[in-house]
Amino acid sequence: MRKINIVTDCTSDLTDDLIQKHDIKVLPLYVTFGDESYRDGIDITTEELYEKVEQYNSLPKTAALPPVQFTELFSTYSQDEDVIFMGIGSNFSGTFQNAYLASQDFENVYVIDSQNLSSGIGLLLLKLAKLRDQGLNTPQIIKEINKIIPLVRTQFAINTLEYLHMGGRCSGTTKIFGTLLKIKPIIRVIDGKMEVTKKPRGKFNKALEALLDYVKDDLGNIDEDYVMVTHSLAKAEADYLISELKDNLNIHNIIETRASGVISTHCGPRTIGILYITKQ
Questions:
Q1: Beta strand pairing status for 24-27 and 30-33?
Q2: Of the given ranges (75-89, 176-190, 210-224), which has the lowest mean pLDDT?
Q3: Domains of the chain by start residue, with CATH
């Protein structure tokens, strides 16, 4: 049986314990303020990133890893082993394309488009690790993961429109009116792209209830392995959602994770999501 190595990037937002338990290699992406570049999660924390956004009054630039870095990494693995890379989806970053280009020089490297972000990727990685540990070979694993990708449910509530505006994802007019109306948009990943699906108004707890409504709609069809509550400095909100999921919806396989700096750059503080895989 050939050894199968799993590689991802930092946007998959898995906890350190899960990364170590499942022997997953994580590559940092970069955030750049002015002339200074930082490896996400290594040279800069999410808290420090937000501090620098306030300092510079602008978002950092985020960059995909270049093909040469993937080539260097893939070269470190023996030809007697397989490597599967799955990171941020192709519609969100050039990382997938660069990894794919580098993989063309290796017969033992395989690249999967997660079509997702944050712990939506993390859920797929955990499935991948489970299939590997069950003894499936690489082609079998890739076939099964591609079946699961459309079943991932990723939805986040956004507390502030400021970061969407600074990132060019909403106009100044939309930001002004959205702020005045206290809109807390719900963003879902659908067919590999982000879409605004609900626009709760008022206090942020209305957005939290909208997230729980999605779970209620899928109740009975949710994969039992893991449900993720992922957030960017929204600990109180995470505690509330976890309590609701456990006490009222009888979901107990919950993992709390924190959004990486790259993910946080595009959504802002107190963003929070519930992510899971459906059975069909």
A1: unpaired
A2: 176-190
A3: 4-150 (3.40.50.10170), 151-278 (3.30.1180.10)
